[in-house]
Amino acid sequence: MKPASKTPRRAPNGVLTDRPIPIRLLPAERAKLEKMAEREQRSLASVSRLVLLRGLAVCERTKTLTS
Predict the structure, then answer these.
(1) What share of the chain is helix, strand, coil (3-state, %, to 5)?
(2) Which pLDDT score, from 0 to 100, does residue 8 have?
(3) How many structural domains comprise the chain?
(4) What's the pTM value of the predicted model, to 2 decimals?
(5) What is the pLDDT of residues 3-61, one digit of tens each?
(6) Domain-embedded: residue 19
(7) Has residue 52 been placed in a domain?
(8) CA 13 to chain centroid
(9) Domain residues for 31?
(10) CA–CA separation, 47 and 35 (whole Å)
(11) Ramachandran assignment for 52, one of left (phi > 0), alpha (psi -120 to 50 degrees), beta (any other)
């Protein structure tokens, strides 16, 4: 008999899964993320990460929120 396997990782290789970043959202913001997650068939964490990455790219491109 095979030993029970762990749940497969869904995070990309190299993602720090042991160091999550808590974030507080307004109810409307969370609802938008939840709708996006449902539409994309992704977890709320996955969609939040993708939105963050896109936002970071915009900030880097426009040189905003940097010193």
Answers:
(1) 50, 0, 50
(2) 64
(3) 1
(4) 0.75
(5) 666 666 667 888 888 888 999 999 999 999 999 999 999 999 999 999 999 999 999 99
(6) no
(7) yes
(8) 14
(9) 27-62
(10) 10
(11) alpha
